[in-house]
Amino acid sequence: MQELTRHVGEQLKQIRAQRGWSLTQAAQATGVSKAMLGQIERGESSPTVATLWKIASGFTVSFSQFLQAPPVVGQTLQPYTPSAAFDSKSSGMSVVSFFPYDAELRMDMFVVELKAAGYSESSAHAVGVIEHVIVIEGELELTVNGEVHILGPGEGLRFRADCKHVYRNNLHKNSLHNSSVASVKFHDIIHYPPEVS
Question: What region holds the HTH cro/C1-type domain (predicted)?
Fold first, then answer.
């Protein structure tokens, strides 16, 4: 995890330098405090998944850019080794970049796991970002712009992610799918608008 924290910080510092932005400008664009951005860059703090999404949206870059290197452009057959899990202990969410951002397809793919009682609230992503969520195991309560959807294994939802959305492990006695799995695991395919790098 320390290696991943360092990588996230280096990526943030590099992207900010490429833009020529001060920490103040980066804070204004992302909605993340200047102090927190500085701590992340120095590897002193590991951001939550929600905070990392705010940073990616503010810089209009893909989320996976912070987790692993992008694929080689022009290579048609690309086997991938999933990235190290990006764990957010406070939310119980673990995110693994399975296929990193592909500039030609403008998408990346994650495997996400929410432990028992796991919950993650995501602020609106950049306009035009679309998510495709497909549950692998367990039961997911996915709230998009105030509308609640309960998804079990093999079920999915495609939605515009430029609004507030919340992921919650739906394990409880009134489960619609009677799941005995303590955690919920799902694929999350993100499709970005053309201006994302």
Answer: 12-66
